[in-house]
Write a structure and sequence with these properties.
The protein is an all-alpha fold. Helix content is 78%, strand content 0%. The relative contact order is 0.15.
Length: 471
Amino acid sequence: MEWNKERVSTLIVVSITSFMGTFLISSINIALPAIEKDFGLHAVMLSWVVTSFLLATAIFLLPVGKLADTVGVFKLFKLGILIFTISSIMCAITPSGFGLIIFRFIQGAGSAFTSTTGSAILVSSFPMKYRGRVIGFAVSSTYLGLAFGPFFGGIITQYVGWRALFWISTALGSFIIFLSFSIFKNGEDKISNGNSGRLKIDSVGVALYMLGLLGLVYGSSKIPQPIGWILMSSGITLLIIFWFWEKFQTDPIFDSKMFTKNRLFAFSNIAALINYSATYAIVFLLSLFLQKTFRFSPREAGSILLAQPIVMAIFSPIAGRFSDKIQPRYLATTGMAICSSGLLFFSFISSDTAIWKIVITLIWMGLGFALFSSPNMNTIMSSVPKTQLGIASGTSSTMRVFGQIVSMTVATLFFTIFFGDNSLDQISNESFLKVIKWGFLTFALIGTAGIYFSFARGDKEMINHSESSAK
């Protein structure tokens, strides 16, 4: 493969953007106890510092994916990095917890723009036979962000303060703005899908989707109050209506036919949804567990959590490269099984659990993540024609973020049931360990379902699209 300047530059921009998002997410998880003390937030509201970002990302992913196939992925990528960087500044200077949650929501919207368009830009720039390899690099960057986040986030939070994390994001975002506006000057003409000039967004579908997600996620934080159940039920109902509504639209933001008529695409996305639903809250729960139960400092907790993403970063490019040569479903299914077994172990941890056992389990799960993520993404992006790369990328990103929301919703639900409006300092270790037990046990059961979808998707060659792109 010819590594020309354009391809190298594209890979650098997308990889740094992937790193930046996950670095911030994972470092904020470590900083949550410090944020709680500064703003006096209770445990459920504290979880919204993370959830608001994910909710906004999920809300905007599908509309942005559709918009990208119409107006171009490069324009939206640039817009997204601008939104992300400006909101990072606002997060750094906000004087209240409520303000932080609001600006995190805006930051999540910016992340939706870059994560949806980034994969489409990357995939369109390389031949199909090398997609697994370059996707592996991008996924590795994502995991490097997860790796450096807890460790350096812990050090920065302990010695400088949590606000410095957002200033670092601002600096990285500014660098990406400079690179993207320099590199992608003429990129708009590189991806042509025949939809240019036909800007039509299904406003009813967008409203159903956004309101459904909002009701589902916000309602979970209000349980066991009646309004919580009402909001969750309403959210689920609206999402079901959204599914059927989109089936009858000529220009939908969510093409349900890609799920009903493309088994490879559908099962790969469902597997991704399940994987993230089962695993995303790991860092959130373990960071609180280590700092509360073992009284570790943010730096010490971050050092322990470093084990998992380092393994992910090392093995993701390898797994991606292998997925170009052997059937991705075998690698992904093995990875899903490894992750489920690790989640089951975490459901039994307590204040007597040896730290080395936690580290070994994190390493084990890091290998599982690496085996699943790159091959699964390679399958998704190779199962659709070039004209659907934007919406395919948006859909897969939606599955990822929706899974993350499900994971945080499960954690928030257990927080609400066992903690109420109490802060972490007011909660006994016994009550906290109940959340750890039932949370991870629930995640292990969810992960087990993903093993079936990962294996039953079929072989990547079952759908062959002509490769006219990435030259």
